[in-house]
Amino acid sequence: xxxxxxxxxxxxxxxxxxxxxxxxxxxxxxxxxxxxxxxxxxxxxxxxxxxxxxxxxxxxxxxxxxxxxxxxxxxxxxxxxxxxxxxxxxxxxxxxxxxxxxxxxxxxxxxxxxxxxxxxxxxxxxxxxxxxxxxxxxxxxxxxxxxxxxxxxxxxxxxxxxxxxxxxxxxxxxxxxxxxxxxxxxxxxxxxxxxxxxxxxxxxxxxxxxxxxxxxxxxxxxxxxxxxxxxxxxxxxxxxxxxxxxxxxxxxxxxxxxxxxxxxxxxxxxxxxxxxxxxxxxxxxxxxxxxxxxxxxxxxxxxxxxxxxxxxxxxxxxxxxxxxxxxxxxxxxxxxxxxxxxxxxxxxxxxxxxxxxxxxxxxxxxxxxxxxxxxxxxxxxxxxxxxxxxxxxxxxxxxxxxxxxxxxxxxxxxxxxxxxxxxxxxxxxxxxxxxxxxxxxxxxxxxxxxxxxxxxxxxxxxxxxxxxxxxxxxxxxxxxxxxxxxxxxxxxxxxxxxxxxxxxxxxxxxxxxxxxxxxxxxxxxxxxxxxxxxxxxxxxxxxxxxxxxxxxxxxxxxxxxxxxxxxxxxxxxxxxxxxxxxxxxxxxxxxxxxxxxxxxxxxxxxxxxx
Length: 610
Known about the structure:
The protein is an alpha+beta fold. Helices cover about 40% and strands about 15% of the residues. The strands form 4 sheets. A 6-stranded mixed sheet has the order 2-1-6-3-4-5, sandwiched between helices. Strands 8-7-12-9-10-11 form a 6-stranded mixed sheet.
């Protein structure tokens, strides 16, 4: 097959057995790769009885056919498992160099099962795979461990590592990649899955080039598209995703004070222009990327120094910053670095700290509970300290390490009203009271609240897609058509997450027609737009059926009370509330699911899902 090596590694950490399993063309064409492959493996090999932190759980790292090619922004991979945080489907899409390097070892992915008795790391170098002792690395942060691993393997090797948070089975822990460049598989607590297997790191090192059907034609197409991508993503290049902090605050998209407020005057103090003027030292480019939205920062003085490495992205600035009312950019950068080093999801960590600050304000927790720490809104000291305590499961940090849903259930009463999550996964830093399609997108996203599994708000702010009938940018507060928009956007994102292409390329002007051309050049397949979208639909439905087996139905496709019923009164979306019920009905009808949110037998048969 072109675009694939046609083989996946299997590593059993209990028996130390390593074997190679073939990947056939039917699987590749129906599921494409990445999270699509992960969906098929997870559905077939785990279920409602599987303990996400038990030895029978599997952990999949999967590349796609575009990974390691000249396709723009394709240096990506997917990590898939059953989530210890939510108990349902989990995936996290990652940029950087790790996925590209894994592909160059000669494999399309690697699946881990079992659990080691002692800490280990796995070193994959082209056709050689070793399971090595990691006792000396256990307890190290991700930056330190990466440096040691490069010395023990190869300076060009790239690592996927957990920090102390993953070792401590913190359910909002992340898997960090690329050392100080800190590309995160952040969501759903996947770091804890690695920790439960005593798997400290997966190190890859390879130089093989995957077979391409027509590399010359691919490069020619990319060359034609590159000027438009550069022009359309110039702001991302200059200021990174942090460029959106201020405009998002203006329209009412920025999370403020645990999602209570509609505007926040200090927003410019943590935005991209301020970062560029004060702490920015460079840009980071993921594999095959010409945009370079990653930030490199340094804080060399002040109470939160030193900081050096990957800087905060928009989601981090929103959740650790405005959502906690913290306007000190150096403190946010420090909290971000601690999350990267300790291995924490910045989104869920920010959500947990904001939840705790509100609980403290409302008297549900006291200084006695916090060990004397005043969890005050806007306190940079409290922010930084709580990141450390969550990773270490120290004091109040142990409660928050289980996630906001669990924390709210343990506190009980009023706490349930302001735990802002869907199916146990905290909302990312975009508000459904600003972009209505996010309401149905968050409610139905298979991993829980997620803007990236739908990315529908892109079509409500700037992006069109004529092949899907999206000829104009949608009205962001409209209700009609948003169920259909969310469904089609989810299927399109499933395609990108399987081929492995960054979603920002949609802002760069990439259309489905271009994607079909790239598939042809990489794999040799003549796939129509309809077949491509059907592959996305198939993946979405299979992931949904995984969740259905775990008990998920319409009763769970809901938003938290604060988002569904509380208008903010100020800002660019002051009084809008999403009509979730109407959009959800439209979504189910368009997908051919039942009124209870379960794919119909006819729909499953049409997609080839028995």
